[in-house]
Design brief:
The structure is a single chain. By secondary structure, the protein is α+β, with helices and mostly antiparallel strands. The protein contains seven helices and seven strands; from the N terminus they run ααααββββαββαβα. The longest helix is centred in the C-terminal third of the chain and has 36 residues, at 174-209. The radius of gyration is 25 Å and the shape is elongated. 14% of the residues are buried. The mean pLDDT is 90.
């Protein structure tokens, strides 16, 4: 199911008509280029993420947005329309989990700040705990990561779309900055070593010239 058919309600369409974008989005909705399953591009993009935001809706009707994070690769692309990840032990509020037990619809947004890329995903989430989660544990574990897994979320994707890059400010993690400047750091270290060697040679030469 395409994202437009889920989100472009009659009111949204009227607003698009009022502000001149309806024809553009009508073409996009009907275009054969609009995909419903992840390609290799989306799969690789999602597998590299170390965080994302997702929204659920409470039984009182309020939306709730939550940040989820973990080591790169904690989000697993099960197939071209299914995602899964472990719910690591946290603050024990259980707001999202509670919301999903009454309304399993979720909206997710994934951002790659250095490349200024943003992917939106709509889906329905299953919550697996205890014995029900056993079949998923090995699939969502992150090697070397010691956090306790309380449950597993499995998201059945119904639609996705890429956002424009406008207003995504490039930001970098400490690891990304270190990787970018690693060559410079190595060069500086080599120059410092060479400088120390030359200073030592110069000092030794001066001592040898003393009568």
């Amino acid at each position: 199911m395409k994202l437009g058919s889920l989100l472009f309600t009659p009111v949204v369409k009227k607003l698009q008509e009022r502000y001149g974008s309806r024809r553009q989005y009508e073409r996009m909705v009907g275009s054969s280029a609009t995909r419903e399953d992840f390609t290799q591009f989306e799969t690789e993009f999602l597998a590299e993420r170390d965080s994302f935001y997702w929204a659920s809706t409470s039984s009182s009707g309020w939306p709730y947005v939550q940040h989820r994070g973990g080591p790169p690769g904690f989000l697993k692309v099960v197939d071209d329309h299914t995602l899964a990840f472990a719910d690591f032990s946290g603050n024990k509020q259980y707001i999202t989990t509670g919301n999903l037990l009454t309304d399993n619809r979720v909206a997710m947004i994934f951002v790659d700040y250095p490349r200024q890329a943003r992917l939106k995903v709509l889906g329905r989430a299953d919550v697996f705990e205890g014995k029900d989660a056993a079949a998923w544990l090995d699939r969502v574990k992150v090697p070397g990561y010691k956090a306790v897994i309380e449950r597993v979320y499995v998201i059945h994707v119904e639609a996705f779309d890429w956002n424009c890059q406008q207003h995504i400010v490039p930001r970098y993690t400490a690891e990304e900055i270190h990787a970018a400047v690693h060559a410079i750091e190595e060069r500086v270290s080599a120059l410092e070593t060479e400088n120390s060697r030359l200073r030592a040679e110069l000092a030794a030469k001066k001592l040898s010239e003393i009568p």
